[in-house]
Specification:
With 299 residues, the protein is an alpha/beta fold. It has helices spanning 3-9, 26-40, 49-62, 68-75, 81-91, 102-121, 137-149, 167-175, 188-194, 210-213, 247-257, and strands at 126-130, 158-164, 177-179, 195-200, 203-208, 216-220, 233-238, 261-269, 283-285, 290-293.
């Protein structure tokens, strides 16, 4: 029997949900989806089997495992704690870009920041939160929006918290190095003022400058676990992440944001998302995929 045949023969013998050298049967998929739901609240229906296979097959090869059954046995065991984190990192989606959904940054710049900056210049503070920051383009876009109005902001009490569940992607964000294609949405004047050119793997890249890095703090955070922050935020970006949760988890996340959003603050969500559940008693629409506390729009 060939190695590929041995790999296909392992498991419970049922048909694989995705084509390839390894068998990913329903039992294996159910174990994986249960773990990812337990660990991160991410709901994976069987229609995502091909995605799960594509992202985890490389982990099986790296570990020299012969079947998804072996992989499940590993990540469910005490010895597989580290690999369970690697599985979670592999299965989370990290699609982002600078100034994605630009209407949010226009709202931030025109409606939210001017009075906040005036207060901060008199000794106040500004706090923004990117709640699923991926490789950093979102929080850096928020920081750039602040700097576009107040270039000296880094010397005051102004901070952007950037959190994500994936430690690898957080490391990339903290480095703040981006390719030419990744930086294309950043205006030329901002590139010249707040980025510096570096060479990486023989190719030109852009690195965020110290003033921009000083505004952004990266921390690991699982949105379905307890949040350590005690203060409120003037703006919260949570975009294109709760779509991966089931409805009860989505409603719990929205509800948890309510007390952490300042009375005048704004919650920015993804274009295909909407606030549901108990949070709708406190939050109302203030533009495209933008929510504020009831009454805040008229202040």
């Amino acid at each position: 029997m060939s190695q590929a045949q041995r790999k296909s023969a392992k498991g419970d013998g049922s048909e694989s949900l995705a084509p390839g050298e390894f068998t990913l049967n329903r039992q294996d998929f159910s174990r994986i989806s249960s773990m990812i739901y337990q660990d991160a609240g991410i709901y994976l229906p069987e229609t995502k089997a091909a995605l799960v296979y594509a992202r985890l097959a490389k982990r099986l090869r790296a570990l020299n495992l012969e079947a998804f059954q072996d992989y499940c046995n590993l990540v469910e065991s005490p010895a597989g704690t580290h690999e369970r984190g690697e599985m979670l990192a592999a299965l989370t989606t990290n699609v982002t870009r600078f100034y994605r959904e630009p209407h949010h940054f226009e709202h931030l710049k025109a409606r939210l920041l001017p009075p906040l900056i005036r207060e901060a210049q008199r000794g106040g503070r500004i706090r923004l939160w990117s709640a699923a920051c991926s490789s950093g383009q979102e929080p850096y876009s928020a920081a750039l929006t602040i700097l576009s109005l107040w270039p000296e902001a880094a010397g005051s009490d102004v901070r952007v918290l950037a959190t994500d569940i994936d430690p690898h992607i957080l490391e990339a964000g903290a480095k703040g190095i981006y390719s030419e294609s990744q930086i294309e949405n950043v205006p030329i004047d901002q590139r010249k003022r707040f980025f510096e050119t570096v060479t990486l793997d023989g190719k030109p890249h852009w690195r965020v400058c110290s003033a921009l890095r000083a505004l952004v703090t990266f921390r690991q955070l699982n949105l379905i676990e307890a949040w350590p922050m005690t203060g409120t935020f003037d703006a919260i970006f949570c975009r294109n992440v709760v779509i991966y949760f089931d409805e009860p988890t989505q409603q719990r996340i929205w509800t948890n944001f309510v007390p952490r959003l300042a009375a005048h603050g704004a919650l920015y969500i993804g274009h295909s998302e909407r606030v549901t559940g108990a949070a709708t008693q406190s939050l109302v629409s203030d533009g495209v995929s933008t929510y504020r506390h009831k009454g805040a729009q008229s202040r």
